[in-house]
Amino acid sequence: MCFSLVVITYLATxxxxxxxxxxxxxxxxxxxAFLVLxxxxxxxxxxxxxxxxxxxxxxxxxxxLEIIQNFLPHRMFSLFDIAADSLGLxxxxxxxxxxxxxxxxxxxxxx
Length: 111
Hints:
- The protein is mainly α.
- The chain has one domain (2-11, 24-109).
- It is 67% helix and 0% strand.
- The protein is elongated, with a radius of gyration of 15 Å.
- The model has no long low-confidence stretch (mean pLDDT 87).
């Protein structure tokens, strides 16, 4: 999980060779990154469900990245990015019943 946070933070704060502003691929990247982060956070703290505390921390992380980007000359703050992040978290929450059925992940929810 920590490695993923470092990689995502690096990618969110460095200049890229190509413009990603208003790109659908950028929003897909945000969605996918936060879907994966949600799963990593949920699995890293298995004693609690995927609850509002985990969601709040990840949203706060996403907003923090956007605030940092606001002060970088090669980046900008985007509410659409925060929305894509939030949709990734929502998607993970909706996928939990399906993930529970996968044998490889069933230990996460065993009591």
